């Protein structure tokens, strides 16, 4: 198939592009490089031996979308493009609503005009809101997300559901991610956040390598075995493979399918720190700060629906996730902008 991947130079997008190419698909990437690097696509070429067709541009550029969909004879779209920093979404809500919601509307308008109706959408467990019922499963009512980022994911899901209801030609997968970590086992691809990381594991690896002084743990008084929050972590390669499984399903099924992509296993912050120290042999200094508003004690997925309907399950362990994250960090101390990146070019 000819597949357009929006946001395909980003963390999850690039690993999915790699999986698609390895599965024999033709891929075109559209990315504005706001929070990503074209270097990730060069690494894909080195791993696979295949060039990645790459267009620099914005998902809200309708004329550009029309050109891409026609010129490359696109059959399906994977949509990752969007702003994703929770804290920033609180201070810049209009940017998030404009980019994420106008983006999905413009994309779907262009797809319909080009008679393309297969879409895999990057959603989030944030749509469940502040639920304390665990594990989270797809038949639950969505909640009230605690920030504009989460609301853009929920509103996007509603837009896509309404769209599919209006026209049975649409076949859409809504994939609700939990906490992706890790990187390609070669160490050539991984998570490359701008500034101080928002997520736990890249924060840990940057402390361990000396880029940051210490890790901050937000709250150690939760009703969990060690007092720290518990989350469901999934290897980014497992996550990418889940997208391919979803594509196979929507190829032969119309309407909207919703699936959690996680492991179904939760680990606390301290468990992740101790596992990292065991894998890396490095001590991770940390300090405890008060809980952040909106954080809950536990969050993990019920993944039985994905196992049953997608014939997919996450295979990689927490230790493998950490090993691959640490390999990426040590080989690329400054991410894709490392001074030694020429060895890959």
Task: Put the structure in a nutshell.
The chain is of the alpha/beta class and 345 residues long.
Can you put this structure into words, describing what you see?
With 345 residues, the protein is an alpha/beta fold. The chain has a single domain, classed as Rossmann fold (3-Layer(aba) Sandwich). Helices cover 39% and strands 18% of the residues. It contains 11 helices and 13 strands. It has helices spanning 11-22, 39-48, 62-71, 86-91, 93-113, 148-166, 200-208, 236-250, 269-280, 304-309, 318-331, and strands spanning 2-6, 26-31, 53-56, 76-79, 118-124, 171-177, 179-181, 215-218, 230-235, 255-261, 266-268, 286-289, 298-299. The strands form 3 sheets. Strands 3-2-1-4-5-6-10 form a 7-stranded parallel beta sheet, with helices on both faces. Strands 7, 9, 11 and 13 form a 4-stranded mixed beta sheet that branches. Strands 8-12 form a two-stranded parallel sheet. The longest helix has 21 residues, at 93-113. The chain is globular.
Topology as H/E string?
EHEHEHEHHEHEEHEEHEEHEEHH
Mind summarizing the main beta sheet?
7 strands, parallel
- Looking at CATH, the homologous superfamily is NAD(P)-binding Rossmann-like Domain
Share of helical residues? 25-40%
What gyration radius follows from the Cα positions, in whole Å? 19 Å
Number of domains: 1
- On the 0 to 100 scale, the average pLDDT is 95
> How large is the share of residues in beta strands?
15-25%
Kindly identify the CATH topology. Answer: Rossmann fold
Structural class: alpha/beta
Q: What distance separates the N and C termini? A: 28 Å
Which CATH class is shown? Alpha Beta
- Uncertain runs: 339-345
Shape: globular
Number of strands: 13
Number of H/I helices: 11
Q: What's the CATH architecture?
A: 3-Layer(aba) Sandwich
Biggest β-sheet: strands ordered side by side in the sheet: 3-2-1-4-5-6-10
